[in-house]
């Protein structure tokens, strides 16, 4: 079988601590904002953790990591993306010293990955700001968060630097515009948050990302640090130049984050957006210097594309990923309204490669669907041909992009084992190759079962994409 995927291509899966670890108060972990988000971004946060919040238990990876990593190894994973729960390491975010039990947990996870020869890919901050940082500082609106994040990262680099090469600073850093609480730990309700505060928070995250990139390079020579962007290509709804311009403006809202991470300075179009919004950022000379510490690679999530139009009469917002956007009349959608567009992935890969000339890493892609557990020959499984079709079509486009000359480091499917959804906090929105017996009402044995896609992915990896 011929393949276009290079030798050493990093095949694997991706997760986030708050969506699958559970053990929300075990071994000294402090609360994170997610412990108060029982409905994801579809409802305001609760005052206290409530049992209806599925993330408190997640899929109990905290206690079952060895079994789960063995299953990933059985599929042949080359890499595994996971995040470190900030509040496991610094329970309040602003503590002077870290929580040893939290650190020891990730030692154990890394031991297990090493045992199976799986390369770790670590997200430092994935939508799980320590609650105290949200309550006391209003999250990233406060410049002091930069220092807390640096202290936290330094501890991670000291402890795990000798065994983790690939690091991502902030998950979907551009999502803060649409989900300021989830992505920025900002408690001010979105409708009340001023642009001044929002963009200052963004600036703080960008400076923190750059400072930590420099620290990683100093402390861990040979380490590779990436930014992580929510990619959602925006097509003009019609060939009307005004629609094309509208689509470009939407794209620029996302490009800005990659441009700053890759070029080390604010692009002109972004400064214009700020000017026109009456935003005057506090940017120190030191900030400008710090921003020059650019990333080694660009990682991104890709689920769907959207359309844009300048005509207000046609501008309806569809369902879909955190950012939403206008539905494309030519595409079908998942049960949650996320439009399926495999070619869009090839477009993103070409676009980002041409723009930044940095290796790209697809660190999230997948189909959220309702699965039915069935029994065949005494074995419980899920016949998830729809998931196989989705992933296959997307991977074929990755292969095309590689032939277009794009440098792709690897591909990690989102939620390689079923976990709790970020946007809706449901368990029934499943992405995994491994079914986890847990329901939206919290019932279930937490048993794991291999789905049909498990064997399919195993074959894809074994043939380095040749079976696609
Ligand atoms: C990305 C996030 O936006 O999409 C993940 O980085 C999230 O945390 C994933 O889970 C899928 O979204 P959802 O809402 O279906 O879980």
Automatic annotation (TrEMBL):
Pfam families (UniProt xref)? Glyco_hydro_1
A GO molecular function term, named singly, is: beta-glucosidase activity
Q: Keywords assigned by UniProt?
A: Glycosidase, Hydrolase
InterPro entries in the record, alphabetically?
GH, GH_1_N_CS, Glyco_hydro_1, Glyco_hydro_1_AS
Q: Has UniProt tagged this entry with the keyword Iron? A: no
* Active-site residues, as the UniProt record annotates them: 364
Query: Which PROSITE patterns does the entry link to?
Result: GLYCOSYL_HYDROL_F1_1, GLYCOSYL_HYDROL_F1_2
Superkingdom of the source species: Bacteria
Q: Which GO terms describe its biological process?
A: carbohydrate catabolic process
Question: What SUPFAM superfamilies does UniProt report for this protein, alphabetically?
Answer: (Trans)glycosidases
What's one GO-annotated cellular component?
cytosol
Which family, according to the similarity comment? Belongs to the glycosyl hydrolase 1 family.
Which PANTHER family does the record associate with it?
6-PHOSPHO-BETA-GLUCOSIDASE ASCB-RELATED, GLYCOSYL HYDROLASE
What name has this protein been given in UniProt? Glycoside hydrolase family 1 protein
Native organism: Kocuria coralli
